[in-house]
Amino acid sequence: MSLRQRCYWFFCFLSFSFMLEYSCHHPDANKTTFHHNSAVLRSSEEFTSRYKEEKLLGEGGFSKVYAGECRSTSTPVAIKHISKEDVEYVKVNCQGNVYNEILEVFLLDQAAGCLCDGSFKNPAVIGLMDVFQLETEVIIVMERLPDTVDGFDYLLEVNHIPEDKIKVIFTQIINAALLMHKNGVFHRDLKLENILVNRNKGTPEIRVIDFGCGDFVQNEPFRDFCGTLEFAPPEHIRGETYKAEATTVWQIGVMLHMTCTGVCFETSEYIKKDKEVLKNVSKECNDFLSQCLALDPNQRPTLEDLLLHPWLELTGPHEPETLKSTSWTWATIPSFPSSSTGSNPNVSSTTANDSLLEVLEYSCHHPDANKTTFHHNSAVLRSSEEFTSRYKEEKLLGEGGFSKVYAGECRSTSTPVAIKHISKEDVEYVKVNCQGNVYNEILEVFLLDQAAGCLCDGSFKNPAVIGLMDVFQLETEVIIVMERLPDTVDGFDYLLEVNHIPEDKIKVIFTQIINAALLMHKNGVFHRDLKLENILVNRNKGTPEIRVIDFGCGDFVQNEPFRDFCGTLEFAPPEHIRGETYKAEATTVWQIGVMLHMTCTGVCFETSEYIKKDKEVLKNVSKECNDFLSQCLALDPNQRPTLEDLLLHPWLELTELLLKQLNHSKEVIIMGDLNINWDVNQGRRSLKKVMDEMNMTQVVNDPTRITKSLKLT
C-alpha cells in the first residue's frame, strides 16, 4: 500500500465510548507511533474503476471473498465484502489525534508489522492493498497469490503430505503466529481454511488470512470466544477463560492433527478420548502434537518453545546440502560475496548515481532463506529541511575517519536518537536483486538492518544490534538515525569508569557479545571492527546489556577469505599482520579475545606487539578465563574455536547450567561419562557432540531458553 493511500485514509463517522492506546509487543515500540489506516467514505464507482471482480472464492457468516484483478496493473487480488452492520471499529490515539479504525483492517496490517513503529515484519500474513468504506459495506482488497489454495483443500488435493513437508509448513505457521503475537495481534481463528498454501512450489509457502475474529494480545484472559467453536481450546469448552498464546498453540495442534490424520477435529470429542499415538508419524511429531494439545493450558509450550522442539530440527546441526533444495525463510550457512575485495563479480560498491552492472542476490545464512525475499531499505533523495523538521541535533558523541555521530531527539515523540553523518563520497553502495527488482543499497545501512535480522525473511532477530530508525540520502551526505539508549556508554568508557569489572560481570557481558556476533554471522553480516568502542554498555543496570554499533567497516560473510583489511589495524588478526588472507569467523573470535584481554587487564592491545610475546597467564582472573582467552588469541586461525564453541566453553558456565537442568529433567537421558574438558585440538567438547545428537546445539546460545526447551524433550 502506498504512502499516499495511507495518508488518504482518514477519519470515519462512528463514535465509541473507549479509546485504545496501541502498542505492539516490540520492547522499543512507541505506543503512539503507528501509521493510521482509517478509510474515508469512498464511492462504489471508484472501486469498480480500480478493480474487476470475478468468481466467488468463499464466504463466511459475515463476509464474502471474490477473486479479482487490479485494472491498471492486472495484478490478481482477493476482494472481501463485509456488511457495514458487521464491521467492528476501534478508536486509536495516534500522537494526540484520535482515529476510528476498522478493527479487521488494523489487525491485518499490524499482524504483518506494517503499522506500529518497531513492529516485526511478518511476510507470512496476507498483504493489504486497499480499503473502501462505502455507505452499506466495507471492501478490503488483499493480495492474491497464484497457484494457492487453503490448507484444507491442499490436504484434500495432496491426500498424503510427507512428514518433512509438514515440518516445513508448520515451521512457517508457528513463526507467523509468533510474529503476530509479538506485534500485539491475536488471530483467534487459526485453522487450515485460514492458511493459504502455494501448491506448486517445491517447498510450500504459507500466508495467514482472515482476521475477522481477531483481537489484541492482552495479559488478561478472554471470556467470550470468537472463532470456529469446533477448534476452541478445552478451557473454553469447560466454561473457563482462555489466554491468547495457549489458544494459538492449541489451534496449531488442531491443524497438525488434521494434517497428520486427514480426519476432522472437534475439541469436545477429543477431550473425551485417551491420549492417542499416531502411527503414521515419528515419535518426535507425536510428542510435539501431545504438547500442543495438552488439556491443561498451563502445560502447553509457548510459541518460542515450539520452534525449539526437536521435531522441527531448528536447534540441531544443519547439513550444507539442504541449501540446494529449499526456498523458504529461516537462517544457517551458504557462501557470501564480499563488497570490498573487488574480486567477486556479483558485487559493486560505487556511488548511487553510477551505472552498476553487478548485482548481489542476497541471502541470510539460514538454509531455507530465499535469496530475494528481503525488504529493501533504499533511501530516496530527501531534503535537509525534512531532516531538521523531524529531528533536533544536539552534542557531538564521537567521530571517526569518515563520519560524525551526534546525540539528538525525535521532535514529535521526544525519543532520544543517535544521528550519524557520512560524507557522500565516503558512502559505499551495493546493488541488490529483490524479487526481480534491482535496488542500490547503502551498504552500511543494509548491513546494520540485516545484522539485526530486519531485512531478509527468516533472519534471526538480534536485539543486541543497535536499532535503525531512519535514513536520509541528501545531495552531499547520508544521515543515518539510530536508537540512543539512556545511561549507556561505549565499552572503553565503561571500563574507565568502572575501573575493575568483576569476572562474573565480564562473563555476562561477553556472553551477550558472542551471542550477538553469532547471530550477525548467521544473518550473513561480518562486522569486521568489533572493539570496545563499538560495544555500548548500559552502565546503570544490575545486569549490563550491550548493543553493537558502527557497521561502517562491515561486509558480507563469505566462504572465500578476505585480503584487504578494513577496521582498526591495532586489533587486526595475526594472519593479516603476516600478509596472509583472513576469514570472517576466525577474525571475529580474535577481536572478541582482544576486547576480553583489554577488559581483564585494563591495558591497550596491539596485535603486532602481542605476537612477539610469550603466551601470558593473567593472574587476576580464573584458570578457565585464561584458557578461554588463549584460544581466542591463538596465533593460528585454524586453532581458534568457532563462535558456537565459545558459548560452550566452561568459563561461560552455560553448559554447566544445561547439565544442571538435564539432571533435574524428569526424562531419563543416558549420556554416559562426559569428558567436559575443553579439547583444544578438536575444537569441540564431547558434550557438544551429545547435544548435537539431541538436536540441542543452539539451545545454549540463549541461556534463558534452556529451561523452556528442556520441558519439550
UniProtKB/TrEMBL annotation:
Entries under InterPro entries matching the protein: Kinase-like_dom_sf, PIM_Ser/Thr_kinase, Prot_kinase_dom, Protein_kinase_ATP_BS, Ser/Thr_kinase_AS
Gene Ontology biological process terms in this record: negative regulation of apoptotic process; regulation of mitotic cell cycle
Gene3D superfamilies cross-referenced by the UniProt entry: Phosphorylase Kinase, domain 1, Transferase(Phosphotransferase) domain 1
Residues spanning the signal sequence: 1-25
Keyword Nucleotide-binding appears in the UniProt entry: yes
EC number, as in UniProt: 2.7.11.1
Entry keywords, A to Z: ATP-binding, Kinase, Nucleotide-binding, Serine/threonine-protein kinase, Signal, Transferase
Binding-site residues for ATP, renumbered to this chain: K80, K420
The reaction(s) this protein catalyses: L-seryl-[protein] + ATP = O-phospho-L-seryl-[protein] + ADP + H(+); L-threonyl-[protein] + ATP = O-phospho-L-threonyl-[protein] + ADP + H(+)
GO cellular component: cytoplasm
Family classification: Belongs to the protein kinase superfamily. CAMK Ser/Thr protein kinase family. PIM subfamily.
Protein's recorded name: non-specific serine/threonine protein kinase
Species of provenance: Gouania willdenowi
